[in-house]
Request: fold
Amino acid sequence: MARITPKPGLRISAQMFSRRDLLRWIYLGRLTLVTGILAGALYVWNVAATQDTRVAVIIFLVAMGVTTASFWYTHVVGAEPGETFLYAQVILDIALVTGIVHVTNGPDSSFAPLYILVISAGALLLPLPGGVLIGGLASMVYFADLAWGYETVFTRDVGLQIGLFAVVALITGLVGDRLRRAGMALGVVESELRQLKLDTVDILATLATGILTVDGEGCLAYANPAAESLLGIASPEWIGRPVLEEIERCAPGLGEILRRGIGERRPVERFSTIRRRDGQDVRLGVSTTVLDRGEGDPPSVTAILQDITDVELIEALNRRAERLEAVAALSASLAHEIKNPLASIRSAVEQLARATLDHDDREILKRLVLKESDRLSRLLSEFLDYSGLRISRRERVHVGRLVADSVALVRQHPDAEGVEVTFEGADVEAWIEGDADLLHRAVFNLTLNAVQYSRPAGSVAVVVGVFSYRPNPRGKSLVHPIGIIVRDSGPGVDPDAVERIFDPFFTTRDGGSGLGLAVVHRAVEAHEGAVFVDRAPGGGAEFVIHLPPAGAATEVAYHG
Reply:
């Protein structure tokens, strides 16, 4: 992900907000303190004018003038306070506190702890060395005032106070330094997030794909211009208002999908709906994501909308072209399969018409005509069965028992002599909705095909189970499909033949019609499943059928 360079102005504003806020509190505290001192001094002045009272008045006037000018400079004009300005503010406060301590009995003054506040403010406003310097300056000024004004020597109490000032200066300096670093980092993050938000809004606004988000209460949280156009809603009118009913009215089914996403916390992988716009039907493809907001809070749901009208039209045309190509290929294959028997029959009939043909040759030709006629009849019957293959009725089918019956029938087939056929999974709780006879025929054909390639003394293993992974045949999304695996010990499938293994009339076995695996493929597809072929472990071929379990949604596919 590309790094976003923050704008310098944004970083400075993040730092200056913290300093100005602190300066505002310093101004307020300073004025409150000197006002209180002045009020006390005036009360004493009314009793007896003293020099200390005049000092208090001077302190008040200086503090008022400097504070007013400073506030005008930093908060009215909005100038950037530099380090010189900050040093001046802190030194002024040291001088003010020293004056207050001086006029309030020096060593016995109750205002000496104010030095700690001044040192803390200096540590927060200035870099670490500056904060330590302010702590040292406050200690020296305090001791100098005591020694000059009150002739106090360096006693243990004074030493403890100066030591406390030094410790406070160091600790608050370290804390202030960390706070400044954190503030700088937050300023950078803030500017990056602001820039990222601007970039994201710009990107979403230019997308042709609609993006719509509703919160856990079903209120509209966001809709980009594409979503507004696709659904025909104006987001400014609906932001913060319940919108699911309006969405359901505009795009039937979409409102319910969003409501289910909030209630069940499950995203929809694929859904389509039709919206009437400008007198035409527009098909919308929809997928949703669910974003949890915390334990106990309903999630928000984001829908991604696309106009798939043209895409579906193109897909329909492509499917039609594919069907026509398949019909042409199938017709060519059928014509080729019929041509050979007809050629043999014609040749035999021409020879039978000769009067000079002896009796033995005539009998051979008669048997040839009958054999090729039977072959042609069998071929046409199998082709008619294949072309008419479809689901006649749907019912709940226990896959394990159905496959067990098919395997038992294969074991009785003459081609299974000498081949060991095993089965696992008769008791697996795997149910599908489909045509039991059609599936029985598909499994029988697949297992018999495996037996025929495993002769004369091979083995075939059939397994039924529920797969934990999810295949994705075109146009389907199977969640935890039911699997039927057929492994044989035959020669395996030539990699060059894998692409054609399920084509009608394609066979690699002498005497095969090439319709057995084609019937399997068509029967599985009729049940919205898929069949694959690969090399079995240890050699041979492995055929795998995936079928959707009973109750699985195909129009709306949920993440499992």
Q: What stands out?
A: The longest helix spans residues 156-206. The CA atoms of residues 316 and 322 lie 10 Å apart. Confidence is low (pLDDT under 50) at residues 1-17, 553-560. The chain is about 55% helix and 15% strand.
